[in-house]
Write a structure and sequence with these properties.
- This protein is mainly alpha-helical and about 110 residues long.
- The protein has helices spanning about 35-50, 55-70, 75-90, 95-105; strands spanning about 5-10, 30.
- The protein has a domain at about 30-105.
- The chain is about 55% helix and about 10% strand.
């Protein structure tokens, strides 16, 4: 895979029912695909470890929320920071450091 940034611009593709054919998206920046896949891989590994350790559901939900945030076209630094703080408070400091570094590439 190339180390290029991908960007989608232009009109909405698909049904324009109820929009008079004028529906448009803003400029959607997918982000650096390699960075997003790194974050998702780290989150998957963390979730697997938490499942094996039978971690509380709220901890697993925080990881799932981080995953959803990473997949957004423009992830929020504040939301990601808040969720990582939650995980740090639950004794996952080392894993969160790696995640934090990977997330920094998305902002």
């Amino acid at each position: 895979m190339n180390d290029r940034d991908f960007e989608i611009q232009g009109p909405v593709i698909g049904s324009n029912v109820g929009t008079s054919g004028h529906a448009r998206t803003g400029d959607v920046h997918i982000g650096h695909i390699k960075d997003v896949s790194t974050v998702l891989r780290l989150l998957d590994e963390l979730r697997e470890d938490l499942n094996k350790a039978q971690a509380p559901t709220s901890t697993i939900e925080a990881v799932d929320d981080l995953r959803a945030e990473a997949r957004k076209p423009r992830p929020s630094k504040d939301v990601a920071g808040h969720l990582m703080d939650k995980l740090s408070d639950r004794g996952l400091g080392e894993q969160v450091k790696d995640l934090s570094k990977a997330f920094d590439a998305l902002f």
